[in-house]
Automatic annotation (TrEMBL):
Keywords, sorted A to Z: Signal
Keyword Signal: yes
Start and end residues of each Secretion system C-terminal sorting domain: 158-223
Name of this protein: Secretion system C-terminal sorting domain-containing protein
Domain of life: Bacteria
Signal peptide range: 1-16
InterPro entries: Secre_tail
Taxonomic classification: Bacteria, Pseudomonadati, Bacteroidota, Flavobacteriia, Flavobacteriales
Length: 225
């Protein structure tokens, strides 16, 4: 318990982006685990990892517990991974997975389903994560990224995520389009041709499009794949 309190205090002092998890209690004990953001993957999604204190946090099922939340771009799922023992996450155990495409952070308990991977747990977690058997708070999401202020209009921008061309359809007349970073920095003005914008030159990540239209300025959040 002293280690856990010190860990929480250290995380607060660092002012890090954190996730608090408690679940799979039969294996990991009835205790909180704190995750810190440790990176961002090629899709722009954040990676969260428990930061071990030497030795790592005790849990009876695995001895010591080191965990990671990360997106698997091959299976299109968020994964909850447990390290096999030395903190390098080489050949880790897959404990839970969730097919929600939330971005940039993993989904909470209400978005999609955190499904137990019984192939690795042998059913020891007691089933999927729910509000009745787990807590998952902090930098987690309850909704997926979507357009911000186009609801209710006969207008669409697709596909999103976009690889090459973003296509506009509907009854908005677009006068100009400005591209911004997700932090709000203007990057460029985009050229629209036949209802399409070419975004193939962009790096993978999150962007904002501000459209000057006949119905005022409209904002779209997009993911470049």
């Amino acid at each position: 318990m002293k280690k856990l309190l010190f860990f929480v205090l250290l995380s607060s002092m660092m002012n890090a982006q954190t996730i608090t998890f408690k679940g799979c209690i039969p294996l990991f004990d009835d205790q909180d685990f704190i995750f810190n953001k440790t990176g961002t993957d090629a899709t722009g999604r954040n990676i969260y990892t428990t930061t071990p204190i030497d030795p790592a946090q005790d849990c009876s099922g695995l001895g010591t517990c080191e965990f990671k939340f990360q997106w698997n771009n091959s299976t299109n799922k968020w994964e909850f991974l447990a390290d096999s023992g030395n903190g390098d996450f080489v050949n880790p155990y897959l404990i839970y997975s969730n097919n929600s495409a939330s971005t940039p952070n993993p989904p909470d308990l209400s978005l999609g389903t955190w499904q137990e991977n019984t192939a690795d747990t042998s059913g020891g977690c007691g089933g999927n994560l729910t509000a009745a058997n787990a807590t998952l708070t902090g930098e987690v999401q309850s909704s997926v990224l979507r357009t911000s202020d186009l609801e209710g209009l006969d207008f669409k921008a697709y596909p999103n995520p976009v690889k090459d061309e973003l296509i506009f359809s509907g009854n908005l007349k677009i006068n100009s389009i400005n591209l911004f970073s997700y932090s709000g920095q203007k990057l460029s003005e985009l050229k629209i041709t036949n209802g399409k914008v070419n975004l193939s030159h962009l790096k993978k990540g999150f962007y904002i499009l501000k459209l000057d239209t006949d119905k005022g300025e409209k904002t779209i959040k997009i993911i470049k794949d």
